[in-house]
Design a protein that fits this description.
Layout lengths: L29 H9 L7 H8 L4 H17 L2 H14 L15 H49 L3 H6 L2 H13 L1 H29 L1 H47 L1 H9 L3 H53 L7 H22 L1 H19 L23 E8 L12 E8 L4 E5 L6 H7 L8 E6 L2 E2 L5 H6 L1 E5 L9 H5 L8 H10 L3 H6 L17 H15 L3 E5 L7 H15 L3 E5 L11 E6 L2 E6 L1 H7 L2 H8 L11
Parallel strand pairs: 3-8, 3-9, 6-7, 7-8
Antiparallel strand pairs: 1-2, 1-4, 4-5, 9-10
Helix pairs in contact: 1-13, 3-5, 3-8, 4-5, 4-12, 5-7, 5-8, 7-13, 8-9, 8-12, 8-13, 9-10, 9-11, 9-12, 11-12, 17-19, 19-20, 21-22
Length: 644
């Protein structure tokens, strides 16, 4: 179980499991969002590259723009028709008596009402159409971008993943790419639609009465100011609420996982975990109440201002009428207050547009930062497949030097002038102290890393001249940390050969000495192994991994400390499986336990990145050097025959 102090925390002085303070920036806070946007990478020609993403949908985008413009324009027509409905339909003037009105003109009123209803219907249909189109375009772009990034990440070298947190990669794929759809659906259409709505409403207000327009615009900033102040409070509380939810999720993931439950039960700390969860739950309840109440105050303030502005407009209208303003009618007042109400929320939305646009560009910048990463290990333009024949399986290092990518030039290289040759079908072992560079050898053979100097050859060819797919297809790797998917045993085995038959699965399992165990399970090969194979023992997982490699049937087998984490009994069973797997193949074994390599054809002793001894077990013991010293330190050698 990984211990991370509770997985982070929220503002307000919260502390982790061991009392260390935790800080986390809330994405709901505008200032924090701006800071996060500023930290985004700077990408040249960012807007042009964003436009390229939407290039395949340019026809649909034009339709969306037209729909937004038409919909925003139509939204201000009903208030103008409202004026006509009052002044010409409900209370038409009496031509015979100036200043008086006659009864309702039903014919005019019917046409006006029909026109208003028609506009509402058309606007609603256009809104549905627009929503469907923006959602389709945005999600198609998002989907294509997600696959593009996932494909690109698959091409990155191993060192990229060793230096980058998995959570960061997942965030780019899920959060950043997931936000692409909202850029079009929300940001772009909102900016365009609100701009047109505000301009159209302002023009309509001027047409109705310019004096009332001045009164409304003078009062509008107070409304916007109140909304922004209350909105900031809500954003801060929403951020704290989200952080609290994240903390509860972290506690749940830590304590309710198999490893977490096992740990808490082993140390009888269940009550401690319950108390942690209960404390955070109380904090969550408090924040939820605050958030709900802040929302109530917000809507109350909105209601007050929404009611106050029309009331003041009524007062201003009364003053204008008292001073003889003939153009202020009942229809004018009703229509004006209707338009003014439509102006408020689009105007407030536009005041936030700069942050929305900045956030959108930062999102794309982080995506392009990953897409611009270039793999350091790529096929040469004239790369070819590994040659078949007698040389297939020959592995050779010629004066190979290697430093890991994050190492500086003045650091001691991990491998320094390493040279050796392993013939096809030969069993070679690499032994030595921890950190000597043994595992690095196993990385360079399949070109998971690139040698800094010298040449690594496979089947007589420089690995840099071979297609990576062809190289890796001829190499099978069994590592100490076996990785199994949360799927059935059969599915895990078929990862090596998707079209393998049941008979082939059984043959591979028998060769790996695991078939009888699998057959004893109620569901046999359809048994679900659990997350990372947790339902299986270490020896069972390792033998399934061996069966998976055998199904691949590679001419070269790399065994990286394949039994070091197993108990003695499991080690012997797995060792027998490895012994069978190694027959007829070139086998490179990275070993910590010398007992597993005593029958190797050749043993290379690696110290500080150099091969200091080489020979058979008997020769090296007789030489009384480093290998003999390591042998004596391991107390005794078992009587098992080793790999073969």
């Amino acid at each position: 179980m990984s211990m991370h102090g509770g997985g982070g925390g929220a503002p307000g002085g919260q502390t982790g499991r061991f009392g260390k303070p935790r800080t986390r920036i809330s994405g709901a806070d505008e200032s924090a969002q701006r800071a996060e946007n500023e930290a985004a990478p700077k990408i040249p020609n960012l807007l042009g590259r964003i436009a390229e993403l939407f290039q395949p949908h340019r026809g649909s985008l034009v339709v969306v723009v037209v729909l937004v413009l038409v919909g925003a324009g139509l939204s201000v027509i009903p208030p103008l028709l409202t004026e006509r409905a009052f002044d010409e339909g409900l209370f038409p003037p009496d031509p015979a008596n100036e200043g008086a009105t006659t009864g309702p003109n039903l014919q005019v009123l019917v046409w006006i009402v029909a026109a208003m209803i028609g506009i509402y219907v058309v606007s609603s249909l256009l809104a549905v159409w627009q929503t469907w189109m923006t959602a389709t375009i945005g999600n198609n772009v998002m989907g294509a971008l997600r696959v593009r990034m996932f494909t690109h990440l698959q091409s990155m070298e191993l060192s990229f993943f060793t230096r980058t947190k998995t959570g960061v990669i997942q965030s780019r794929l899920q959060n950043d790419v997931g936000g692409v759809a909202s850029v079009l659906t929300n940001t772009v259409s909102s900016v365009l639609g609100n701009t047109v709505t505000v301009i159209s409403a302002f023009i309509a207000m001027l047409i109705l009465n310019w004096q009332l327009t001045v009164v409304a615009l003078v009062l509008m900033p107070f409304m916007v100011f109140a909304q922004r102040r209350v909105g900031k409070v809500r954003a801060r509380i929403a951020g704290e609420t989200q952080e609290s939810l994240s903390e509860m999720t972290a506690i749940t993931q830590e304590t309710l996982s198999v490893s977490g439950i096992l740990l808490s039960k082993s140390f009888t700390r269940q009550q401690n975990e319950i108390d942690r969860y209960a404390d955070e739950n109380r904090n969550q309840v408090r924040l939820q109440v605050r958030q709900q109440m802040t929302g109530q105050w917000f809507f109350a303030l909105v209601g007050i201002f929404m009611s106050s502005i029309p009331a003041i407009v009524y007062l201003a209208s009364g003053l204008l009428i008292s001073n003889g303003a003939a153009d202020v009618t009942a229809g004018t007042i009703v229509a004006f207050t209707t338009v003014q109400a439509r102006l408020l929320f689009p105007l407030m939305a536009l005041m936030r547009v700069s942050l929305d646009l900045q956030t959108s560009t930062a999102l794309f910048a982080r995506i392009f930062e990953y897409l611009d990463l270039r793999p350091t290990i790529v096929d040469a333009p004239d790369a070819r497949d590994a040659a078949s024949g007698a040389a297939l399986g020959r592995v050779e290092f010629e004066n190979v030097t290697f430093r890991y990518p994050d190492a500086t030039d003045d650091t001691v290289p991990t491998l320094d002038g390493v040279s050796f040759a392993i013939e096809p079908g030969q069993f070679a072992a690499f032994v030595g102290p921890s950190g000597a560079g043994k595992t690095t050898v196993s990385y360079l053979v399949p070109r998971l890393y690139e040698a800094t100097g010298g040449v690594v050859r496979f089947a007589g060819d420089d690995v840099r001249e071979l297609r990576q797919e062809s190289l890796v297809r001829n190499i099978g790797i069994v590592s100490q940390e076996t990785y199994l998917f949360h799927a059935s045993i059969a599915e895990n085995l078929r990862y090596a050969k998707p079209d393998a038959t049941d008979a082939e699965l059984e043959a591979a399992a028998r060769a790996a000495n695991i078939h009888e165990t699998i057959a004893s399970f109620p569901d046999g090969y359809e048994t679900t192994v659990g997350e990372r194979g947790y339902r299986l023992s270490g020896g069972e997982k390792q033998r399934i991994a061996i069966a998976r490699v055998l199904l691949k049937d590679p001419p070269v087998l790399v065994l990286d400390e394949a039994t070091s984490a197993l108990d003695t009994i499991s080690e012997r069973v797995v060792q027998q499986a490895l012994d069978d797997a190694a027959k007829g193949r070139t086998t490179i074994a990275i070993a910590h336990r010398l007992s597993t390599v005593i029958s190797a054809d050749v043993i290379f002793v690696v110290v500080a990145g150099r091969i200091v001894e080489r020979g058979t077990h008997a020769e090296l013991v007789a030489a009384d050097g480093v290998y003999a010293t390591l042998s004596r330190q391991q107390e005794h050698l078992p009587t098992s025959p080793g790999w073969r």
